[in-house]
Amino acid sequence: MSRMPDHLRSVYTAEMTAARHADDDTGRWHHLERAHIISQPYPWPHTHNHIAMLGLALRQHDRREALGQIIRIIVAAPGSALGRYPEGNTGRTNVGLTTPMPIPDDLAETISSGA
Question: Which parts of the sequence are annotated with region: Disordered (predicted)?
Fold first, then answer.
């Protein structure tokens, strides 16, 4: 299993922190989705992100989202470890589990920069 490079870990940590401190649920989801895109190749951060998403879904009493996150928690680490994840996918249940999505430009630049 590969370790998340420091430049990605700092962005991931910043997004997860921003999600915890956001003023509303829309902001929380936005930051969790961005953290998800960064975390996909890395089993533990990817799983940790889905656990945070599950927590938010439960706080919102969103059963559909919570169930979807439970499924994603189960498949996140194996998918990451095997390199089988849809790039750019935001990790929410309103998007197919295997649907690739465009990566926001700033995140794409960070991912490809390697620094």
Answer: 82-115
Is the residue at 90 inside a domain? yes
Q: What is the DSSP letter of 4?
A: P
Q: How many CB atoms lie within 10 A of CB 64?
A: 10
The residues, any chain, with a CB within 8 Å of residue 25's CB and separated by 6 or more, are: 56, 60
Q: Is 65 helix (H, G, I), strand (E, B) or coil?
A: helix
Q: Are 92 and 33 in contact (CB under 8 A)?
A: yes
Query: Rounded to an integer, what distance in angstroms lies between the CA atom of residue 60 and that of residue 46?
Result: 21
pTM, rounded to two decimals = 0.95
pLDDT in tens, 21-33: 999 999 999 999 9
